[in-house]
């Protein structure tokens, strides 16, 4: 049966702050650039340079103040602007052509304020031609000035651009962290930058040198690689590009290593580009839509009934539920992404229409659950949702049906009876009264109560999950849909008792979609980095109790199923191993009595080490961080012993100094280990000040001397005033003086004298009178 496309009104813009100004800009300026925040509550409108004031407007749906910015004539307006999906609140970054970047944020009150202003090109002389903000990064393409070598010819001048990157992360509630600039590409042509949820597309422009205007680049941020593709040739090649490791490429050198891509071809003549979760869409002047995927392959999606007329005609592309939506002028065409067949064609009442992406998964309002995954269409008439009516074969369960189905599974898992329990039996049996009472409340037979208010959010999430499953069953096989389903399933499982089937299902989701599963874990545990490079969490103790429990010492998990804590450690070790020690340390702070082990003597750091593999096959850096962060004396001493074997003296001393006065015995043991090394060789002499700081204050000088006597190597021959050539110098009193003076400065002990020569260390400096001589 043919599906029917729907255009549902979500808002007439009256619930947006500054609604009048918003309608004015949408209706009056066809060249206005429109962007939407990840939660769908904020709209950004940026007018082109030279337009009348205001050049920038941010409208907010619901509570909140709008932001209007204007620049006087003669002063340039921003080149581009983006929303930043920060957890503390909405943020906005503005980038100018001269390299100036400003970050704005909504403060505690409803007003906006400037958080940071910086120069992307500190050296000056560069001109930014394109910018994008993918996943906590700011990427821009800038044109460098010609150096002292003089004017360059046309071919060389065409490669005078470079693509740069800086990380952009929130720091607290009122500041940002902007990382150091890193050049991704040197000597490249001008690129336009388009960002999707996973990839960054670098596409040629009208001014790109014709010899390379058929080539585009796809940078996969999560995989740390760049794909060089020529869609017209059907060729692509992958190269590593990881800014964290300092990777950078010279564009000309990159192409010389791929001669097949330089075959003479016509430049890509594209009317409209659009980034989508499936890849990069491009519309040519014949009305044909092509899709370039993240692996570099390309295919034709379909052909529109109307082709764009010149560069002046407006066009917008987007995808939803396996459908391509194209707005060309005042016409909306819907094509099947698989077959290219025209599904529906609608004539709109205006030609000034903008397509907006749906809100990010998990950030929809309650009113938008029924339109989840659909594209949104914005004009001066309002905000609409483009979607399909649900097929007749797919019926969404009611809230009353969901109660009996969930209760049926709950009772069946706890029943000893062999017969299968059915929802119909629960409806009519007088044995199970709880689901009948809850169903009556939801159906309205009983007046609403506190129970309904408590369950509304959980039932809304569960109903949204069922809606998403129904859409996927109806033929929506988009990767974004499965990712969203995995995120919701993990968030639901982490709120349940993780035993048996639930634990097995959680393991399956983490194996199939680890990135989506870890993203849901981040939101459930409310994990955020603090200013000291550590993790913090605001999740309630009940959630942590479920995560940290469920293991038994000495027993392997059945059928390879890992407990929740081990599962999270394994996933984190694969995705972001540098955060594993901080996560384990945070878990140790959150754990209550008996949470982290099924039997005594199984601390969390040992559970994390077991995930890394057998001893000797683990990554040394991670193992050291886990041992040092455990706070257990045996583990810390083991880590210090490994550092001593590697002769990392400063780090070993810092490990002892970091313990603080709360662990005097452990500090004393580390000091004795380091003192033994100090007595046996001279490679620790440069770190003597740190060794003095590590020395316990209650240790007397005579005790240090006795310890040194124990650790000193045996003398082979008679002592000599100077060491033999090639032989390491022995320990001298001069090297010990600083250490002995520090312990002696603590004051003379009140107890009995332990040595006949101990008084020398506290002597004021005046020698005693000489005894009379016998004549």
What labels describe this entry?
about 775 residues, five-stranded antiparallel sheet, single chain, about 30% helix, endosome, BLOC-2_complex_Hps6_subunit, Hermansky-Pudlak syndrome 6 protein homolog, six-stranded mixed sheet, 33 strands, cytoplasm, membrane, globular, alpha+beta
Number of strands: 33
Q: Could you tell me the strand content as a percent range?
A: 15-25%
Question: What is the terminal-to-terminal distance?
Answer: 132 Å
Helix content: 25-40%
Instruction: Give the averaged pLDDT, no decimals.
Output: 79
- Overall, the morphology is globular
Multimerization status: single chain
**Taking Cα atoms only, what radius of gyration do you get, to the nearest Å?**
34 Å
Number of helices: 21
The description of the largest β-sheet is: 6 strands, mixed
Q: Give start-end ranges of low-pLDDT stretches.
A: 596-601, 747-758
Name the structural class.
Answer: alpha+beta
Task: Give a short summary of the structure.
The chain has 775 residues and is of the alpha+beta class.
How would you portray this structure in words?
Strand 30 (375-379) and strand 31 (382-388) form a beta hairpin. Helix 8 (479-493) packs across helix 10 (514-525) and helix 12 (564-575) crosses helix 14. The longest helix is centred in the middle third of the chain and has 24 residues, at 450-473. This protein is globular. Residues 596-601 and 747-758 have low confidence and may be disordered. Strands 10, 11, 12, 13, 14 and 20 form a six-stranded mixed β-sheet that branches. The protein is α+β, with helices and mostly antiparallel strands and 775 residues long. It has 21 helices and 33 strands.
